[in-house]
Structures are given as structure tokens and as C-alpha cells.
Design brief:
mainly alpha, 14 helices, elongated
Length: about 220
């Protein structure tokens, strides 16, 4: 378990780095519309932010609500999101989640993790993302990027074959997230961006790392 001072230092350094070097222009990070956050989460699966930027704003202009997706022809949705690939699967999933939101929640994306995870295709990560971004709740965005940073810095290792399903890892990550909604977002986005720009899966840039004096992995390089 990390010491309180190390955890606090880690959070402060990540937030400071994010304010200087993070990706601040991604539209799904600037919205508070839970439907827009949910759409982004589905579009970002198995593709890149660069690809999603090509269709995200147009998608929301055409389908600003779950009701709009539900009324649309699936072929129309597929055509719009074709640049992302696997458009048949994406369109079907978007239809399914829109149908569930309309039928079970009156068209409003739920604001509790328990209810969010009842939506088709929504697991722990997407539920946390909606709560963090749209509803200002201090949840961690524990994907493979955040897991890599936490494992390296704090010398922790999940016993699960699929670490993103490890409740202990989720609890550890949540312990780090600031309670303040703005800082919670900056911290989460900071870890994700830092993992993609500095703490790479292969050939991490340890010599440039602001966390090196804290990092168990970095000190051993």
C-alpha cells in the first residue's frame, strides 16, 4: 500500500503535468451531457481519439439524444460511423443502449453506477466515465494505461489475469482520485495522457518522467 505522502505527491505531479501537456481539446472531455459522454465511450472502443474526432460532433448533431438514435435507421448510423470500423457492431450497440435508456430511464442516462451497469455494453469503466465527466463524481478511469502507471509507480501487481476487473485495483485507484470534481477529472485525464505520452508500454521515457523519484520501476531502470 502506498504511503499517504507518496500518493498525494503522485496526484499533485500528475495534475500539474496535465495542465501543461494534457489533451484539453477533446470534446468529450469538455461536455457535461451524460448522453454525449456515453456516445464517446462507445465510439472510442477499438479505435483512436483521432479517428473519433472525425465523426463525434457530427454524430451528436444528428443524434443529440437516445430517442434520436432509437428513431434512426441503423444503416444511417452505420454510414456515419463507418470511418471508425466495425460499424455494424457499433451501430447495433448504440441502438441497444439507446433503447435501454429510453425504455427504462425515460431517455435520461442514469446517475448511479449500479443503474449504469445495467445498460447493455456498459461495464465498470464506462460507468465510471459517465459519473466522473457528466455527474462530477470522483471515480477512477482504470484502463490498461492507468493500470500500467499505477503498477510501475507503486510496485503493485494484480493477481487477476484481467487486471481491469480487479476490485482491489479499482479500490486503490479510487483512493487516489481527488474529491473535488475538477481535480478528479484533471487527475484521471492526466494519468491517461501521461501513460500515452511518457509512460509508454514499450520504451517508457523514464529520463523525461516527472514521477521518476517516486516510481519503483523508474528507479530500477
Amino acid at each position: 500500500m502506498a504511503s499517504e505522502s507518496k500518493a498525494r505527491d503522485f496526484v499533485e505531479r500528475i495534475i500539474s503535468w496535465y495542465r501543461k501537456y494534457g489533451c484539453h481539446d477533446l470534446p468529450w472531455r469538455r461536455t457535461s451531457d451524460p448522453w454525449a459522454v456515453l456516445v464517446a465511450a462507445f465510439l472510442l472502443r477499438k479505435t483512436t481519439s483521432k479517428q473519433v474526432l472525425r465523426v463525434y460532433s457530427r454524430f451528436l448533431e444528428k443524434f443529440p439524444t437516445p430517442e434520436a438514435v432509437l428513431k434512426a435507421d441503423e444503416a444511417e448510423i452505420r454510414e456515419l460511423i463507418r470511418p471508425l470500423g466495425i460499424e455494424h457492431q457499433r451501430a447495433r450497440h448504440l441502438k441497444e443502449v439507446a433503447r435501454a435508456v429510453v425504455k427504462n430511464y425515460g431517455g435520461k442516462v442514469p446517475c448511479s453506477k449500479e443503474e449504469l451497469k445495467k445498460l447493455p455494453g456498459v461495464g465498470e469503466y464506462i460507468a465510471s466515465e459517465v459519473l466522473l465527466v457528466a455527474y462530477g463524481q470522483p471515480e477512477p478511469l482504470l484502463d490498461r494505461n492507468m493500470i500500467r502507471v499505477l503498477e510501475r509507480v507503486f510496485s503493485i501487481r494484480s493477481s487477476k489475469k484481467r487486471p481491469h476487473t480487479d476490485p482491489e485495483l479499482w479500490r486503490f485507484a479510487k483512493m487516489l482520485v481527488p474529491r473535488d470534481p475538477r481535480l478528479a477529472k484533471e487527475f484521471n485525464y492526466g494519468v491517461l495522457d501521461f501513460a500515452r505520452q511518457v509512460c509508454l508500454a514499450r520504451r517508457p521515457k523514464c529520463s523525461l518522467c516527472i514521477l521518476r523519484s517516486l516510481c519503483a520501476y523508474g528507479q530500477g531502470v
